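Reading a protein record of the kind used here takes only a little practice. The integers have meaning only within a learned vocabulary of local backbone shapes. With that in mind, consider the following protein and its fold in token form:
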Amino acid sequence: MQLTFARTLAALATLASVVVATAPAHASASPYQRGPDPTEAVLEASRGPFSVSDTTVSSLVVTGFGGGTIYYPTSTAEGTFGGVAIAPGYTASRSSMAWLAERIASHGFVVFNIDTITRSDQPASRGRQLLAALDYLTERSTVRSRLDASRLGVMGHSMGGGGTLEASASRPSLQAAVPLTPWNLDKSWSEVQVPTMIIGAENDSIASVTSHSEPFYNSLPSSLDKAYLELDGASHFAPNTTNPTIGKFSVAWLKRFIDDDLRYEQFLCPPPVGDRDISEYRNTCPHS
């Protein structure tokens, strides 16, 4: 009987060690973790768990970019939030990215959806404008008290996506970048140190993935946390209308790297398999 009891104790001890070893990676929560545990349904929905307000910033009161709209969570119970600046594409205004800006804010970010100084501004200029917008957001905006200025990211569409790469190369302290169907004449970004997810479109005839998104991704350092997602059958303008795949993976990337929220790693690693909206996905999993 004593032998049986000893074996039982040993078995229980082994079971306990297995339970501890297989505990979820997010058991030790990031201090920047915001919101409830994420699910596929929540990430694919049109709105996240936070209520959002917005405020307009006139181009007359800013320097270095064209003003814009700031979307921010109304809640102050969870502390400060990370910040994101978004730039539109060539000839476009901020209205083309409004759906995504508001959606990201509803997951717990302060998002500045900007207009550029002129609609023909090139990627290098758009990159500088994204950084000027972040500086305004953290230093002068009416919502700066809601922000953690050390946790910032950039996004943009087309030439705004090219500008996202430019901003990342210029400011390595950024936490995340998401270029959307990006366009840039510069194909080499080996200097970028910012975790970057590039979202391309399979049928893009303006910034084809073979000439833009794929070379950009391949040029990023192999040691960098990076991903390449290609939208199945999509055009260059896919980011300009509500798109659950863009919303889901943009939010997951920003949460993972701006908030250091490991709960979102499950949507990025291992790579999504069988998603009919994704024609290709590359990554450097596991992320550091």
Observations:
- The beta strands are 52-57, 68-73, 81-87, 109-114, 147-157, 176-180, 196-201, 226-231, 278-283.
- Helices lie at 2-21, 40-44, 98-105, 123-139, 159-170, 213-219, 244-258.
